[in-house]
Write a structure and sequence with these properties.
Order of helices and strands: HHEEHEEEHEHHHEHEEHEEEHEEHEHEH
Strand content: 15-25%
CATH class of the largest domain: Alpha Beta
CATH topology of the largest domain: Aminopeptidase
Oligomer: single chain
Shape: elongated
Distance between the termini: 20 Å
CATH architecture of the largest domain: 3-Layer(aba) Sandwich
Bound molecules: zinc ion
CATH superfamily of the largest domain: Zn peptidases
Largest sheet: 9 strands, mixed
Structural class: alpha+beta
Number of domains: 2
Radius of gyration: 24 Å
Helix content: 25-40%
Number of helices: 13
């Protein structure tokens, strides 16, 4: 495959070293008893935000922070009617997180846009790199910065408190973020949003593939099921005369798992929590409570399968003489990526001489909210061992740089309108 000369230049050692140094430097800000932890409106978050703003300025961006604390680095375009071509990710981390999740999309965006400005001069469309605040929900609700930009952060979320009783509003204002103008209107000046992110799963590594092009971000259903049976003596109650809530739950889980597996495709299904009452060794369980989490990128399938799972549990309930009660906890619809941006990313990967794999994102990202104000595209780079949200999270410098190269080429196509 022929690799364009300009992309080779970007792939040269200097940029890779710079990208690594950004990630390493950010990775030191917020190290404490939990490992790396940077939640919104803390000294360490501000320190990281200022580092990022400084790097943006060094590359020739104009930098501003919006009312909630998102950092926006902008390169003005030559066409002042044109909408912005944007990219980015988040700057906060989970408690004990790694140094690539979120940060790669920010640091990589700065490198990609900085390189484009240096090599090709001012673009036709404005280019922006956005560092979103509060994606992980490790202090307040997740996706808060991108939700703000989409004009969807409601007043009731602003008054929600963290574990120390401090509201989002109070925390933001303590750091000088006004939360105004109220995020009631989504941005209307954005042409596209691209997010480069680590995969956080094992697929790309297993395939030996350097680039994942995301077809869509998965939808989700979560529910809590309560199974009610009857507690009886474990020694004296014959097997045929029991209403065993735990056994019924086990059968239901097995039936639902089978149902999901037989449906094929991308669906994933998890029972992450289960408890039984009274919870004694020698007593038949009267009640069992467990959760289910099911994800699929196809809204129709997600909906259909979810009601199929309910039917499966009702069948088991009838066979085992128990009652089942469903409580829906969460319903998130899938977000498809723009087919045009997927094509542009695929073309960019080809130009960079990199293999790519089309895949679904099983995790949520800021792009979900960005999709409310612009077409979105996402690309992944491999996560070693599939590990993420932990200190072991690792993607090598050259793997990170491969993602940045594809990102830069895609942004070039979007913002320079094939001028080069
Ligand atoms: Zn992330």
């Amino acid at each position: 495959m022929k690799i364009s000369k300009d992309l080779q230049k970007l792939n040269s050692h200097g940029y890779e070293v710079l990208l690594s140094s950004y990630l390493q430097e950010l990775g030191k800000v917020g190290i404490g008893e939990f490992g790396l932890w940077r939640s919104p409106y803390t000294q360490e978050y501000e320190e990281a935000a200022n580092l990022v703003a400084g790097w943006m300025k060094e590359h020739g961006f104009e930098v501003k922070k919006d009312g909630i604390g998102n950092i926006i680095g902008r390169i003005e375009g030559t066409d002042n009617q044109a909408r912005a071509v944007t990219m980015g990710s988040h700057l906060d981390t989970v408690r004990g997180g790694g140094i690539y999740d979120g940060m790669l999309g920010v640091a990589g965006g700065i490198i990609a846009a900085g390189y484009l400005l240096k090599t090709y001069g001012r673009p036709q469309n404005p280019i922006e790199v956005i560092a979103f605040i509060g994606e992980e929900g490790s202090r307040f609700s997740g996706l808060m910065g991108s939700k703000w930009m989409a004009g969807d952060l409601e007043e009731k979320e602003l008054v929600k408190v963290d574990e120390n009783g401090i509201s989002l509003k109070a925390a933001a204002q303590a750091f000088g973020y006004s939360l105004s103008p109220s995020g009631s209107t989504p941005r209307s000046d954005v042409e596209a949003f691209l997010e480069l992110h680590i995969e956080q799963g094992p697929v790309l590594e297993a395939k030996g593939c350097p680039i994942g092009i995301v077809s869509g971000i998965t939808g989700m259903r979560q529910a809590e099921l309560t199974i009610r049976g009857r507690s009886d003596h474990a020694g004296t109650t014959p097997m045929g005369m029991r209403h065993d809530a735990l056994l019924a739950a086990a059968k239901m889980i097995g039936a639902m798992d089978l149902c999901v597996r037989q449906s094929g495709g991308d669906t994933v299904f998890t029972v992450g929590r289960i408890s039984a009452n009274p919870g004694a060794v020698n007593v038949v369980a009267a009640e069992t409570v467990f959760t289910i989490d099911m994800r699929d990128p196809d809204p129709k399938k997600l909906k259909g399968l979810y009601s199929q799972l309910e039917e499966e549990t009702l069948k088991v309930a009838a066979q085992t003489g128990v009652l089942v009660e469903w409580k829906n906890i969460l319903a998130v619809e899938p977000v498809p990526c723009s087919p045009i941006l997927r094509d542009i990313l695929a073309e960019a990967a080809r130009k960079a001489g990199l293999d790519y794999h089309e895949m679904v994102s099983g995790a949520g990202h800021d792009a979900i909210m960005a999709a409310r104000f612009a077409p979105i595209g996402m690309l992944f780079v491999p996560s070693t061992g599939g590990r993420s949200h932990c200190g072991e999270e690792y993607t090598s410098p050259s793997q990170c740089m491969a993602g940045v190269t594809v990102l830069a080429e895609a942004i070039r196509q979007l913002a320079y309108k094939n001028k080069y």
